[in-house]
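Deadline looming. Please check this record:
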Amino acid sequence: MQGRSAGVLTVPRHVRGVVVLASRTERSAPRDRALGRALLRAGLATLLVEDDADGDAAALAEALVAAVDWLALDAAVGDLPPILGELPVACVAAGTGAGAALVAAADRPHRVVAVVARDLPDDAPAPATVAVLPVDGDGDPEAIRGWLVAHLAGGR
């Protein structure tokens, strides 16, 4: 992978699902943090992945797949709550990152059940096994939160 990813995992007491937030720019980070806070209040864990792949969609997709795989490690590595490996996962990303999130969902269909794709490029892949919410611009954070809760806490 060309870029290096760092992540911040936050888990509420009664977790019902996990959302991987791909934050690629300084502009998107505050928006993603605000959405993350709303998701935590709704019982969804968040993994904020900050990636410096410099627009490389393949590298970001690789980072998102690695994040999803890391969540599945559970307590085996001693630093994750045991339940995380059993919970459904969603990805939230924008632009080329949205395409990368769709690639990650296609690569891990048994784990990733939903993708919120902000400003999705026209040529982005469309995996058949995942629910996709296309969003123009920032979208309504409460609507996004509600959609994610329905897809993660409500099952597939």
Summary: Helices lie at 28-41, 57-72, 96-107, 141-152.
